Amino acid sequence: MERILRELCEVFGPSGFEGEVKEKIKEFLKGKKFDIKEDRFGNLVIYNKGKKPTITFSAHIDEIGIVCVDADKRGFLKCSPVGTVYPHLYTGHMVIFKSGVVGVFNGKNWKKQDVNSFEEIIIDIGCESKEEALKAVSIGEPAVIYSSFVIQDNKIIARNLDNRAGVSVLVNLLLENESFERDLYFVFNVQEELGLRGARVFSEYIETDFVFTVDVSTTGDTYTEPERSFKLGGGAGIRVMDSRTVFPLKLISYLENLAKKRGIKVQRDAGSYGVTDAFSIQTARGGIPTITITIPVRYSHSPSSLILRSDLEEVYKLINAIIEEPPSN
Amino acid sequence: MIEYLKELSELKGPSGREDEVKDYIKSKLEEKGIFYEEDFFGNLYVFKRGKAEIKLNVCVMAHIDEVGVIVTGYTSDGYLKFRPIGGLDAEILPGNEIIFLNGTKGIVISLPPHRKKQIEYSFKNLVIDIGAYSSEEAKSRVDIGEEGVFMTKFEEIGKEVYKGKSFDNRAGTALVLSLILDEEIPFDTNFVFTVQEETGLLGARVSSSRRNFDLAFIIEGTFAFEPYHPEEEYYPKLGYGPVITKMDKSLIVNEVLINYVERAAFKNNIKFQWKIPFTGSTDGGPVSLTNRGVKTLVMAIPCRYIHSKASLIFKEDLYNTKKLLLKIMEEMYGEDFKGIM
């Protein structure tokens, strides 16, 4: 499990440039007999034919990042965010562009730590002129934070656990089974961080009875977030409500009963400020019962986010249980 | 193409009330006996046979609406209260002449420099003066909900440099119209004139869901600018060719399409420039999300001072955009649309 998560975290994949992540997933699944298709928007869709009802599991494969928009005459790059990026958290870190060029992400006022907008951000790639800089990195080239992947006992730290953690759960599930009895779709969707775009595309054409999306959710047990009961180590999260979605009670109680029966540790995830693919999916095709299973994470959308392996395992067990005992229509 | 642009530019077509523009397009099509269709939302469709028949359902799209104003009320002394349609900056409005769809003319109020500090130019404070003596007279001349646009004559003010209003997106409209009327195209293509782009990319979403396109080219008029310190800031410029979007607020263009653009431009020696990433949004966004994902390319003709009373355009850019579009289409056909399906 760790190996898969590590390899997924190490590939480059900001929204719109998820090619490497998709290649990685295909590489993992080489030799398996699943029907793998990529739609025109870029979502990777894996289908397993079997008994109804049809259940879809989805996880977005993109991460946040930045994109080069210009260079100034001294050879510093200017950039824009891809998704929700907090510039003050990135200052002082290295960023790596798609072509492999590495630079330093900095604010003009970085020693005072009051960098608030991307207007004040410069990226130093060690060039001396505008021409040289734009030859090394072209306008529109994306980049992500250059960071390591660390496992320490039960803890996992990486920049892009949102949502490679979710992806790794689904990939694991596919690796450990030759086929499933059930009618299942596994969707690795793109461009979530830019407004749930991939989810909107696949949910319009996949004919499914239920969708379970797997994503991370920021916990309320740190100094950095408003306090709420959702916490690290509390097991799989069952999303109840967030900034834009109210989840169906029927699915919430189904998951809670299932977890109780199987001894899986779950917790309710309510009151998050975030939003997940479920928002796009639940209104598609006249309404699809959709719920998000969340992995508790700290410091999501920062250069170093933290999850617990034990939580990841509970999520894995919960998804396995759903396949064995699906909700009824 | 310039004649079309001249006539289109002077027409009134604020979002939701694009009939004048559509009537002009229809009359041009009818002259040549070209069949067109219109959907309930107001989008206009033309299907044209090309040199080859293909399996893909391809479209070239341009929105025909423009930014404008809409009347929301009256003051007791006969001024019109109004709100913007689309992205209009209140600070550039004072002193501008406005013409309403029913022909009534008016001026957005402005204060002379002697008294300028007295009001802040915002939509809350600005009103339109139509020379009415009372609110009753104003009411009888312009209804609530009446839409208006800038009044600007189309003129050549430099050598092959043209001034006019609403080049966003009459420039794109003129280009698409000339593709239908005057050009031979590489393969069968749908041409769509969409409505209500400026108020939220609405027409394009409807058209693409109805027609199930596989590949879309969005033709736009986009901002260009010559900054005061050109070495410090990047802007697309006039004379540097079509502006290609890699990403904007609504869309990330697939890399396969970007590669086609680069190849076609290189082979045919056409220069082009990148749009500033993540600025603005276009019809491309909603279109790309329909029909299991539509591969969508956004190409724009650079124009200075869009969304204002008057913009500038270079004839050369308009022609180069058309040329590059045709070359990209040929390149795609030549490679059997590799990577697109």
Topology:
The complex is a heterodimer of chains A (329) and B (341).
Chain A: H1 2-10, H2 19-28, E1 35-38, E2 44-48, E3 51-60, E4 65-71, E5 76-82, H3 87-90, E6 94-97, E7 102-107, E8 121-124, H4 130-136, E9 142-145, E10 150-152, E11 155-158, H5 161-175, E12 182-189, H6 197-205, E13 210-218, E14 236-241, H7 249-262, E15 266-270, H8 278-281, E16 290-297, E17 305-308, H9 309-324
Parallel strand pairs in A: 3-12, 3-13, 13-16, 14-15
Antiparallel strand pairs in A: 1-2, 2-12, 4-5, 4-9, 5-8, 6-7, 6-9, 7-8, 10-11, 11-17, 14-16
Chain B: H1 2-9, H2 19-31, E1 37-38, E2 44-48, E3 58-63, E4 68-74, E5 79-85, E6 97-100, E7 105-108, E8 127-129, H3 135-141, E9 147-150, E10 155-158, E11 161-164, H4 167-182, E12 189-194, H5 202-211, E13 215-224, E14 243-244, H6 255-267, E15 273-274, H7 284-288, E16 295-304, E17 311-314, H8 315-334
Parallel strand pairs in B: 3-12, 3-13, 13-16, 14-15
Antiparallel strand pairs in B: 1-2, 2-12, 4-5, 4-9, 5-8, 6-7, 6-9, 7-8, 10-11, 11-17, 14-16
Rg of Cα set of chain A? 20 Å
Distance between the termini of chain B: 32 Å
What is the radius of gyration of chain B? 21 Å
SSE ordering of chain A: HHEEEEEHEEEHEEEHEHEEHEHEEH
Folded structure, characterized:
In chain A, strand 6 and strand 7 form a beta hairpin. An eight-stranded mixed β-sheet of chain A has the order 1-2-12-3-13-16-14-15, with helices on both faces. In chain A, strands 4-5-8-7-6-9 form a six-stranded antiparallel β-barrel. A three-stranded antiparallel β-sheet of chain A has the order 10-11-17. Chain A is α+β, with helices and mostly antiparallel strands and 329 residues long. Chain A starts with a helix and ends in a 5-residue tail after the last helix. The longest helix of chain A is centred in the C-terminal third of the chain and has 16 residues, at 309-324. Chain A has nine helices and 17 strands. Chain A has helices spanning 2-10, 19-28, 87-90, 130-136, 161-175, 197-205, 249-262, 278-281, 309-324, and strands at residues 35-38, 44-48, 51-60, 65-71, 76-82, 94-97, 102-107, 121-124, 142-145, 150-152, 155-158, 182-189, 210-218, 236-241, 266-270, 290-297, 305-308. The model of chain A has no long low-confidence stretch (mean pLDDT 93). Helices cover 27% and strands 30% of the residues of chain A. Chain B has 341 residues and is of the alpha+beta class. Chain B is built from eight helices and 17 strands. An eight-stranded mixed β-sheet of chain B has the order 1-2-12-3-13-16-14-15, with helices on both faces. A six-stranded antiparallel barrel of chain B has the order 4-5-8-7-6-9. Chain B has a three-stranded antiparallel β-sheet with strand order 10-11-17. In chain B, helix 1 crosses helix 4. The longest helix of chain B is centred in the C-terminal third of the chain and has 20 residues, at 315-334. Chain B is globular and about 65 Å long. The model of chain B has no long low-confidence stretch (mean pLDDT 93). Chain A binds chain B through residues 15-17, 19, 39-43, 67-73, 80-82, 130, 138-140, 191, 194, 197, 200-202, 204-205, and chain B through 214, 231-234, 246-247, 252, 254-255, 274, 276-278, 288-290, 292-295, 340-341.
